[in-house]
Amino acid sequence: MDENLGNIVSDGAEILLDSLIENEILREIPVIGTSLNLIKGISNIRDIAYLNKVKRFVLQLGTLSHDKKRKLIDESRKDGKRRVKFGNAIFTAIEQSDSLVKVKFLAIAFEGFLNGDYSNSDFRLMCHIISNSFTDDLIDIIESETPKSELKYLVATGLADIDYEEMIEKQINMEPQYKLSLTSMQLREAWSMYNK
């Protein structure tokens, strides 16, 4: 990398890192705080892109109440395997997000988890689905009153399910019907409650 560009990237990273470290929420999120410490010597654009995603995640969450912080700390202390799965789900989903919209959805899902709207396992599934879905499909499914996406193409991502009940009830050989998955419904509810 060109030395001047390297200096600009490094300076920009320092400013971004300083603004993130001031936010106490990072100390409460497993893996993210650690990842910030690992990239203090930041020197490339990819690391800055990751920091921008973390910043978006933190800004979407805002300030956590004492109860939410306590829940997060308690969740991370339950057991080692669970802590690693929980932290990795957040870290991997943020790192692999190909748009800031996905990071926003991750933060909204995380807030729903902190409010007890769903379990640790459900939250990790949401992280997986958000990471593996096309951004336009996510926006359509989560934000639209009546999504326009063809649900049959979203089964593989987890945003939709095949509705076997209707086929069994009618007992006829027909084309399968599709419906939004439970996880999509949870994401839609979280978006309507926590979107700021």
Question: What does this entry look like structurally?
Answer:
The chain is mainly alpha-helical and 196 residues long. It has one domain. The chain is 68% helix and 4% strand. It is built from 11 helices and 2 strands. It has helices spanning 3-21, 25-28, 32-38, 45-61, 66-77, 80-96, 100-114, 120-132, 135-143, 164-170, 182-194; strands at residues 160-163, 177-180. The protein has a two-stranded antiparallel ribbon. The protein is globular.
List the helices and strands and how they pair.
Blueprint (H helix, E strand, L loop, with lengths): L2 H19 L3 H4 L3 H7 L6 H17 L4 H12 L2 H17 L3 H15 L5 H13 L2 H9 L16 E4 H7 L6 E4 L1 H13 L2
Antiparallel strand pairs: 1-2
Helix pairs in contact: 1-4, 4-7, 6-8, 7-8, 7-11
Biggest β-sheet, characterized?
A: 2 strands, antiparallel
Distance between the termini: 38 Å
* SS summary, helix count: 11
Overall average pLDDT = 75
Widest beta sheet: strand line-up = 1-2
- Shape, per Cα inertia axes: globular
Q: If you compute it from the alpha carbons, what radius of gyration comes out, rounded to the nearest whole angstrom?
A: 19 Å
Structural category: mainly alpha
From the structure provided, what is the oligomeric state, counting identical versus distinct chains?
Answer: single chain
Give the tally of structural domains. Answer: 1
Low-confidence stretches: 1-17
Run of helices and strands: HHHHHHHHHEHEH
Strand content: under 5%
The tally of strands reads 2
Question: Percentage of helical residues?
Answer: 55-70%
